[in-house]
Amino acid sequence: MRRLLCLLLAVLLPAVVVPGTAEAAPTVTAVPADAGKGWPVSGAEGVLDLAARGYVEEEYLLSGQADTYAQAGLWTDDGRWATRVASTGNPYTTRMVVVRPRDPARFTGTVVVEWLNVSFGVDIPVDFSQSYEHFLREGHAYVGVTTQKAGADKLKSLDPARYGAVDLSGDALSYDVFSQAAQAVRANPALLGGRTPSVVLGTGHSQSALRLTTYANAIQPVRHAYDGFMIHGRAALAAPIGDGVLGPLSARIRTDLGVPVFVLQSETDVVASASVRQDTALVRTWEVAGTAHADRYGLDLYDAANARDRSINDGAPTTCDKPVNSMTSRYAENAAFAHLDRWARGGAAPPVAPPISMLLNLIIVRDADQNARGGVRLPDLDVPVAAYAPNNSGGNVPGACLLLGTTTPLSPERIRRLYPDHAAYVAAFTAAADRALRAGYLLRPDRDEAVARAVAAPVP
Predict the structure, then answer these.
(1) Is the pLDDT of residue 16 over 90?
(2) Dihedral of the CA atoms 31, 33, 37, 40 (nearest 10)?
(3) Other Cβ atoms closer than 10 A to 54
(4) Strands 363-364 and 386-389, sheet pairing
(5) What does the pLDDT look like over 73-113, one tens digit per residue?
(6) Which of 84, 161, 263, 391 is deepest in the core (most CB within 10 A)?
(7) Is 303's pLDDT higher than 70?
(8) Which of 36, 37, 47, 43 is nearest to 58 (CA)?
(9) Is residue 114 within 8 Å of 160, Cβ to Cβ?
(10) Which of 202, 94, 212, 52 is nearest to 142 (CA)?
(11) Hey, how many other C-beta atoms are within 10 angstroms of the C-beta on 393?
């Protein structure tokens, strides 16, 4: 039904320019497991024990010819953008990392395709690092796509024997490459252990979220490649459609897209995105209090992969002036993916969440412990043992600590006033976890994990 609606919208919306070329399907070639150094760059090898969870990681080359696009007419901040094809027949080869159930019978039919983030010059699977536990628990498949030139070039420099054929001539190809990745997932059952997907969701974080905003507004109405989107950690602006041009400085998600869009924001993101907050019939925004753009949980995985690949700072772990934000943002992201999956299948829309409280859309309102008010509330924030801030400083990777946030433990005296004994802490934490579960911000397995942590924690 959704795909029919998308096709009808393409006919009814004269602002969208549909390409006149009929492109051949991309080709998919398996990368031998022992090619080059013997593992996918930025993959899970040696970082996560996928086999123990009944999963396999495989890598493929995706090759084809891509269109590039250009802006047609004025792009206003409502996101109803028209495009035209700027060029056709641009050859490319990129790679896809596929993580899927070993037993095809476990596959739910949901595939999450991530636009890998290249803010630090190498592919980083941000959304996989946050929500892999949810994907693996459910039986979803995951596909990480090298979509931009910086990521492709880094692959070739890190492992030329494995990635010698990879070639993306520029980021203008990225939008059609991301479309063709979804096309390949739908058309090649071998990627998914012989199964075909029922739902294909596109996701991207930070820099990738800016490009996914442009993709949703300008390309999805043309290509109809995805059944829904997770846009994670965006600012108000959007990425350019072509090389050498500026993107729009303010961009909401178009409300006539025909597929659902979940916008998931941290505290770090809200000051830069408050002007484009949205909650509509097909756009849902959650702002998760206490969280940072990136956090300790994800950084532990990045550091392990970086130590193996030596892709940033010669493999050294990232350090900052203060302890990195350790709020459990992954719980909210897991819940958001569960809601998006159900929504894309025609189910109920996710619950509307209050925004993080702000003054003049510039200053976050904080409580006596310096934690944010409002927003999606996780039990680790509602029953705090620390103050969680959205930014950090210093560090050995330029720009990283600004995004990693801080964790400042509350004083022993303050904790003792809040929780006279361990039973009081566990009772308060459990009640907060149950509130978040009822609100839809927390999934049952994550609620149980969180409460088990509280029971084991030496508080006070």
Answers:
(1) no
(2) 70
(3) 12
(4) unpaired
(5) 999 999 999 999 999 999 999 999 999 999 999 999 999 99
(6) 263
(7) yes
(8) 43
(9) no
(10) 202
(11) 11
Instruction: Give the H/E segment covering residue 177.
Output: helix 174-187
Give the integer Cα–Cα distance in Å for 243 and 169: 11
Residue 112, C-beta contacts closer than 8 angstroms, at least 6 positions apart = 127, 128, 131, 135, 140, 141, 142, 143, 201, 203, 230, 337
Helix, coil or strand: residue 18: coil
Q: How far apart are the first and last CA of the chain?
A: 54
Residues 102, 96: Cα–Cα separation, whole Å: 17
Residue pLDDT, tens place only, 43-52:
999 999 999 9
Angle between helices 329-344 and 126-138 (to 10 degrees): 60
Look-up of token digits 């095809």? 104
At residue 65, the pLDDT reads 98
Check whether the bond before 260 is cis (ω within 30° of 0).
Answer: no
Question: Helices 329-344 and 296-309, interaxial angle, to 10°?
Answer: 90
Neighbours of 65 (CB within 10 A): 16
**Are the C-beta atoms of 434 and 447 separated by less than 8 Å?**
yes
User: How far apart are alpha carbons 447 and 434 in whole angstroms?
Assistant: 7
| Model confidence pTM above 0.70 | yes
- What are 183-206's pLDDT values in tens digits? 999 999 999 999 999 999 999 999
Distance of CA 59 to the CA centre of its chain: 20
Residue-wise DSSP of 294-321: S-HHHHHHHHHHHHHH--SGGGPPP--S
Distance (Å) of CA 424 to CA 92, 359, 430: 59, 34, 10
Residue identified by tokens 């999606």 is: 376
The residue count for the chain: 460
DSSP state letters, 356-406: BPEETTTEE-B-TTSPBPBSB--HHHHS-SEEEES-----SSTTHHHHH-E
Could you identify the residue written with the tokens 């096709």?
A: 7
Contact 413, 397 (CB under 8 A): no
